[in-house]
Amino acid sequence: MRRVTILGATGSIGQNTLDLIRRAPDAYHVVALTGGRNITQLAADAREMRADLAVTAHAELLDDLRAALSGSGIAAAAGEAALIEAAQRPADWIMSAIVGVAGLAPGMAALAQGSTLALANKESLVTAGPLLLATAARHGARILPVDSEHSAIFQALIGEDRSAVERVIITASGGAFRDRPLADLAHVSVREASTHPNWDMGQRITIDSASMFNKALEVIEAKEFFGLRPDQIEVLVHPQSTVHALVGFCDGALMAHVGPPDMRHAIGYALNWPDRSHLPVARLDLAAIGRLDFAAPDPARYPALALAGQVMQTGGHAGAVFNAAKERALDHFIAGRIGFSDMTALVARVLKGGVPDAGPDMGARDITLESVRHWDHFTRQQMDRLIAA
Ligand code: NAD
Ligand code: MG
């Protein structure tokens, strides 16, 4: 039996992961499941999967979790330290599916036990890519990408000589506002921004898809994970979301990964790797789809994309600053305090002006968990100050 742990089990990726595990209950032993405020879901899943341990990120919900698990024999724990302990429990395969930079420390703890980390939490690579990869190498752990575009690139690279890769192309659906008049974008609602044309995902990544902050994060994620130069990474708008990514080789060939927009493919690929096993995703009928469209992203509609270039140029903690500024701007947008277009404008201002309280040089290279926390903390404060001003 393979021992598996799911960090962020109650979220969209976590639930899709459980869907796959549920189909082969005898193949897996669930070690730990973690979640946030949805105690009912967490406890129900822990009971169904007969997990050893369930952890909520919120210390004040420990009693609720204990009550929900009473009589089950499943251990309950709560808080940040408990999340780390869950990640440290011996397991063969650990899904990193917490949303935001909060997923970094648990993911690092999982790597330190030398097992396989299925990485959905792109923020880990954006904020601390070199640290994450060095930690994996030091402990003999393997990171398998779960972001659909990165899983697609990973699959297109199988058997290929990396030095023959010229470029990678990451596709983007264009999000909720692809066809909206530009002038409307300042006034769109949180509800509209939370609806994705093709993918069913958590609210935060769905809004990030509409703004293309998600794609900006993915460009940086690709640079870090595959060791690419920024000029080797392109973004292509592809409204059907069936081609997830393409890899371009030195002989002009493009290898495209084509599949339905269903995260269970990328999750299942990481779960079954290095094998391929049957997965319960739709089979594409290309004749019925008929056509696939591609277009260059409009920089006026998606200004977040250009910021990714700046971040990669600066390096060091620029990824942590970018991500924290984005996460905080998104909090304020969801709370109704700023408009949709304000998010990119504010993040651009933080990148340009720096984070004076955190230090003069966000490009400084020595990345540790503590240094990421430091830049993250002061960037959020800086964003709050800009919004209050
Ligand atoms: P989600 O919001 O649906 O779920 C997030 C999970 O993290 C939940 O279990 C929640 O309880 C937990 N969580 C939230 N805040 C936390 C905190 N501070 N500490 C600990 N746990 C916390 O998110 P999601 O859409 O499943 O995305 C998860 C990750 O996967 C993100 O990094 C996202 O970018 C990435 N991803 C998601 C998709 C998708 O289809 N949803 C696709 C590609 C990549
Ligand atoms: Mg993606």
From TrEMBL:
Positions of NADPH binding: 10-13, 36-38, 121, 123, 202
DXP reductoisomerase C-terminal domain boundaries: 259-381
A GO MF term: NADPH binding
Keywords: Isomerase, Isoprene biosynthesis, Magnesium, Manganese, Metal-binding, NADP, Oxidoreductase
Pfam families for this protein: DXP_redisom_C, DXP_reductoisom, DXPR_C
GN (gene name): dxr
Record field: catalytic activity: 2-C-methyl-D-erythritol 4-phosphate + NADP(+) = 1-deoxy-D-xylulose 5-phosphate + NADPH + H(+)
UniProt domain 1-deoxy-D-xylulose 5-phosphate reductoisomerase N-terminal: residue ranges: 4-129
Domain spans labelled 1-deoxy-D-xylulose 5-phosphate reductoisomerase C-terminal: 143-226
Family the UniProt entry places it in: Belongs to the DXR family.
UniProt name for this protein: 1-deoxy-D-xylulose 5-phosphate reductoisomerase
Provenance organism: Pelagivirga sediminicola
Highest taxon listed in the record's lineage: Bacteria
Keyword presence, Hydrolase: no
Binding site for 1-deoxy-D-xylulose 5-phosphate: 122, 148-149, 173, 196, 209, 214-215, 218
Coiled-coil blocks: none
High-level lineage: Bacteria, Pseudomonadati, Pseudomonadota, Alphaproteobacteria, Rhodobacterales
Annotated EC: 1.1.1.267
Amino-acid positions noted as binding Mn(2+) in the UniProt annotation, renumbered to this chain: 147, 149, 218
GO process annotations (BP): isopentenyl diphosphate biosynthetic process, methylerythritol 4-phosphate pathway involved in terpenoid biosynthetic process
Metabolic or biological pathway, per its Swiss-Prot or TrEMBL entry: Isoprenoid biosynthesis; isopentenyl diphosphate biosynthesis via DXP pathway; isopentenyl diphosphate from 1-deoxy-D-xylulose 5-phosphate: step 1/6
Cofactor: Mg(2+); Mn(2+)
Free-text function comment from the UniProt entry: Catalyzes the NADPH-dependent rearrangement and reduction of 1-deoxy-D-xylulose-5-phosphate (DXP) to 2-C-methyl-D-erythritol 4-phosphate (MEP).
